[in-house]
Amino acid sequence: MTHHPTPPDNHPPTPDHPTPANTHPPTAPDEPVPSGARPPTVPDEPVRSGAHSHTVPDEPVRSGARPHTVPDLAFAGFAAALRYAGLAVTADRVQLFLRAVAVLDATLTADVYWAGRAALCSGPDDTARYDEVFAAWFTGDRGRGAVPSRTPQASVQAALDASDAGSEDEGDHTLNVSASTAEVLRHRDVAGLSAIDRAELARLFGTLHPQVPLRRANRRRPSHRGEIDPRRTLRAQLRQVGEPARVHYRRRGVRPRRVVVLIDVSGSMRPYADSLLRLAHAMVQQAPRIVEVFTIGTRLTRVTPALRHRDPEFALRAAGDVVPDWSGGTRLGEVLKVFLDRWGQRGTARRAVVVVCSDGWERGDAALLGAQLQRLASLAHRVVWLNPHRGKRGYEPVQAGIVAVLPHLDDLVAGHSLASFAELLEVVADA
User: Fold this and answer.
1) Which domain holds residue 114?
2) 318 and 402 share a domain?
3) Sorting pLDDT into bands at 50, 70 and 90, what band is 424?
4) What is each CA distance from 47 to 43, 70, 183, in whole angstroms?
5) Whole-angstrom Cα distance, residue 70 to residue 52?
6) What digits encode the pLDDT tens for the residues 68-113?
7) Model confidence over 162-193: pLDDT tens digits?
8) Are residue 247 and residue 268 in the same domain, yes or no?
9) Which of these, 18, 257, 364, 412, has the minimum number of CB atoms within 10 Å of its CB?
C-alpha cells in the first residue's frame, strides 16, 4: 500500500492546532526593523577579517582608555598620523598592525601600544615620535606635543561607534588629533616627502612673507627730528628778512638692500633644489628688482628672469629649461670665482646680503672655495650659508667645503623644512 506524504499545513494556528514551541512564524523579508531594535545575529556566520569585538570582563578599562569596540578606521587614522609626523609607515606595515591588534586585546592600551611600536616603527629613532603621537591620539595628552608649533593647532574629533553588546552605558568616545596636517608638514624634511605631500608643501610656500632688508641711504630727507638742516634753516631766515625762523631738520632715509641667492643644483642637493627654487621665487615676487638668483654646480646660471613669472609652476619650469648642469657635479670654488669676476665685483654682491644654499660637498679644491668666500665676505654686507643637513640631529660641519668657508660666514642656518625656510627669511630681513 502506497503512502503519500501529508502536505504541510499552512493554515494559521487554531486552538486545535497550536504552534510548536520551537517553531517561529515566518517574517516577511521586507518588514522594517522597529526603531532601536538590534538586528538578529547569526551564530554560525564567521567573523570577517579585521573586525574587533573583544571584551575584557575581568579587567576594567581605565579612564581615557579605548572603548570595548574599536573600528579599523581609528587604527588606520593613527597610522596616518604617524606618517604625517615623519615615520616611514607603509601600507604593509599598516596591514601588519591591524592583524596584530585583531589577535591581541584592542581594549588594552598596552597591547595596542606594543603592536603599533613593533609594526609601525622602522628603528629606534622612531620611538620618540611614536610615543608622542600615540599619547596625543589615544589619550589626548598634548603635554609633550608631537611637533613644536607657533600657532594654536587645529583639533579634529572622530566619534567611535560602540556597538558591542557587553555594555550599554559607555557613551560617546572621541579621538583627538593633536597636530594639524599643515603644521606637521612645516617641520618635515622636504627630501623625504611623498608626491602628495610635496604638492601640499608647494601650496604652503604661499604662506611665506619675505621682507627685503633695509639700509641707510646716503641722501638726507626733511624730517621733524634728526640733525639740523642748515640750508633750509638759512633760507627760511632770509625769507623772514633776517628774523628768527623755524629750525628745519633732516635725517638719512632708508633704501632696500640687495639680496643675492646662490642655489646649489648638484646631485647631492637634488632633493632640496625644487624647494629652494620655490623659496627664491617667493623672494623675487616680493622684490623683483632687488633680489638676484643664480644656480651653481659646474656652471653659473642667472635664473632671475625666469623666476619673475607670477605662476610658481611656470617659473620653475622656465628656470629648469635654462639650467644646463641640473643634478651634475660640484665645483663651488670655480663657480664662485666666476660669479665674483663677472657679477659680484661689478656691484651685484657689493653691500648685499648673499645667501649660499649648498651642503658644502666640494669636488674641487677646498682652499680655492675658502679664498673665494673670503673675497665674497669682503664685498657683501652679510654672508649667510644655508645647509640642509644643518637642522638634522647629530650634524657636525666636518665637510671640507664647510670647514673652508666657516670662518668667513656670518650665519650658518638650516634649510631642510618649510619652518627652517621661514627662519632664513627672518635672518635675511634683519641683516
Assistant:
1) 72-148+155-160+171-179
2) yes
3) very high
4) 10, 15, 40
5) 6
6) 344 577 888 888 888 888 788 888 888 888 888 888 887 788 888 9
7) 344 444 444 443 333 434 677 888 889 999 88
8) no
9) 18
293 and 379 belong to one structural domain: yes
State phi, psi for 254 to the nearest 5 degrees: -125, 150
Residue 49: the pLDDT is: 37
67 within 8 A of 172, measured Cβ to Cβ: no
pLDDT over 80 at 14, yes or no? no
Q: Which letter, b or e, does each residue of 113-147 get, where b requires 16 or more Cβ atoms within 10 Å of its Cβ?
A: eebbeebbbeeeebeebbebbbbbbbeeeeeeebb
**pLDDT single digits (tens) 257-308:** 999 999 999 988 999 999 999 999 999 999 999 999 999 989 999 999 999 9
Cβ burial of 283 (10 Å; 0-12, 13-18, 19+) is buried
- 263 shares its domain with 363: yes
**Could you give the angle at the alpha carbon of 87 between the alpha carbons of 85 and 93, nearest 5°?**
130
* Strand partners for 300: 296
Q: How many domains does the chain have?
A: 3
Residue 186 inside a domain? The answer is no
Q: Which of 194, 226, 255 is the last residue of a domain?
A: 255
What would the grid cell of residue 426 be? 627672518
| One domain for residues 295 and 248 | no
CA distance linking residue 337 with residue 373, whole number of Å: 9
Position 117: which residue type?
R
φ and ψ at residue 383, rounded to 5 degrees: -115, 120
Same domain as 250, residue 316:
no
Query: Side chain identity at 261, as an amino acid letter?
Result: V
Considering 203, 233, 255, which residue would you say is the last residue of a domain?
Answer: 255
286 touches 244 (CB < 8 A):
no
Maximum Cα–Cα distance across the chain: 154
Look-up of cell digits 660666514 = 409
Torsion angle, alpha carbons of 263, 268, 272, 276, to 10: 0
Give the pLDDT of residue 385.
96
Q: Are residues 410 and 383 in the same domain?
A: yes
